[in-house]
Amino acid sequence: MDAAPHSVDPITVEVIGSALATIVEEMGKAIIRAAYSTNIKERQDCSTALFDATGRIIAQAELIPIHLGSLLGITDYVFRHHDLSTVRPGDVFIGNDAHTGGGTHLNDIVFLEPIFHGGVLVAWVTNLAHHSDFVDRGHAHIFQEGLRIPPVRLYREGVLQQDVMDLVLLNCQVPRERINDFRAQMAANRLGVQRFQALCDKYGPEVVRIAASKVLDYAERKTRAGISTIPDGVYEFRHDFDSNLVDQVLDLRVRVEVRGEEIFFDFPEAPPQVRAGINMVLTALQATVYFAVKVLVDPDTPANAGFHRPIHVTAPLGSVLNATAPAAVYSRTDIAQRLVDMIFAALSRTIPERVAAASTGGTLLTTSGQHPRTGRFYVYNEMCGGGMGARFAQDGLDGVQVNTTNTANLPIEALETEHPVMVERYELVRDSGGAGRFRGGMCMRRQIRVLDHVATVSAGGTNNVVPPFGLDGGLPGMTGRVELSEGAAPLNRRAGILQPGQSIGMLGAAGGGYGDPRLRDRALVRRDLREDRISAEAAREIYGLEDV
């Protein structure tokens, strides 16, 4: 184009905005299709995003909400610690560290690459994948959790820095998976670079830049309009948090203040960070809050920097919600899930139609050992879904990931084909969902038997002591638990050993109910009874169904 326009018409803005969203979604599909490990190709534990030349996020794929913390963090770190004048086409930064590299936990490894057009830096493309590695380690502090990678160049002008790659792979327990998953991440970034450059070829980089800025402004206006529908005021909620990584139950509090078109989140008196992997760094907390706000004000709002502008998040430095080095952070989603429930509960009395009762925090199972058929070390990792909390006028979903996580359950066929284990039970648990006028989602039981080898296991999560709460008279959901076969040694915290033929069962917590159970539609109670979702005893004693 001969001259840069001072403005871009709304239709072009909409077309370019849709193109940006399509680029990150296509990148996500590319990682999933090209990945080697089951955790990425089957469970889809990855995320993608685009940033503009100044470091503002302009598009994020609808994959895993908590990953936003790492995507924001590494970009900010590179902008603050690297001389951008030295960045060249084909440079790729790799990073994962929660305390010096902007990550949120070490298994989430981020690739960040600049996009050049006509010799000028016009944007950045980035993706993240959770690598099932660094197992059988402690979680007292981050030095026990795996290799810490501050953002460094893995590629320089398109040339792999083999010494950096060798350093990373030497510290991985399943290097064959890592190198192939890294290739999938590189392919996704290269696809994103090509698609963005093609967009600039078509419209010109200045038009794309202006359109992207307008998309940010649109997201901000939409967010402010959504916040303004919440009555001004201060809304608070407190709740106990338990995890089998720590001995004590933590007292968590949230304070939400709505002032016109802006919303403020504070977490007063947050407990000090602990010597266990449940701590969150600030970017993880921000990603958690952003998810909750998006649900509450307008789920269709574009996930970009404009959406973030009216949202303010603070937490005490050195607390479990704003941890400092060397805090362990591996299971930071345990608290993240609970915070979303608490934000919903705080606002339930003013916007009850938009919130849900408490949901499961998720239950993590990791099995590793020497694969008897291949002779190689293997890692099977899965966050088992539980029950979603019931909503104002709808039952909660059964056996799903909720809130800040969004991974799929690993199909039995893929699990048993690639790992030396057998799934013995995979079922929804009767009477697990919290009773209510609308019933909480049911949790599921997934029982795995170890075959022909000694396996190291890590199993557990949250809501083992404190059940997911109900709202407006709804009853809590069932607590989560780990079930071991007869003769298996008890777990120490989450860690243990299974001998050949022994099994472990995982039950995530179920969702809380919404409203008085005796007000539930009789036809729905009979349907639940017919489908074996509830027992005859529950139908009679909790729901008040007389003709059982």
Describe this structure in words.
- The chain is α+β, with helices and mostly antiparallel strands.
- The protein folds into 2 domains: 10-222, no CATH class; 356-548, no CATH class.
- It has helices at residues 10-34, 38-41, 68-81, 162-170, 175-203, 205-227, 282-297, 305-308, 333-347, 412-418, 522-530, 536-541; strands spanning 46-52, 57-60, 92-95, 108-117, 120-130, 152-156, 159-160, 233-241, 250-259, 262-266, 311-314, 363-370, 377-384, 421-428, 444-450, 455-461, 481-484, 495-498, 503-507.
- The strands form 4 sheets. A 7-stranded antiparallel β-sheet has the order 2-1-5-4-3-6-7, sandwiched between helices. The chain has a 4-stranded mixed β-sheet with strand order 8-9-10-11, covered by helices on one side. A 4-stranded antiparallel β-sheet has the order 13-12-16-18, with no helix packed on it.
- The longest helix has 29 residues, at 175-203.
- The mean pLDDT is 94.
- InterPro entries: Hydantoinase_B (IPR003692), Oxoprolinase-like (IPR045079).
Summary, kept brief:
The chain has helices spanning 10-34, 38-41, 68-81, 162-170, 175-203, 205-227, 282-297, 305-308, 333-347, 412-418, 522-530, 536-541; strands at residues 46-52, 57-60, 92-95, 108-117, 120-130, 152-156, 159-160, 233-241, 250-259, 262-266, 311-314, 363-370, 377-384, 421-428, 444-450, 455-461, 481-484, 495-498, 503-507.
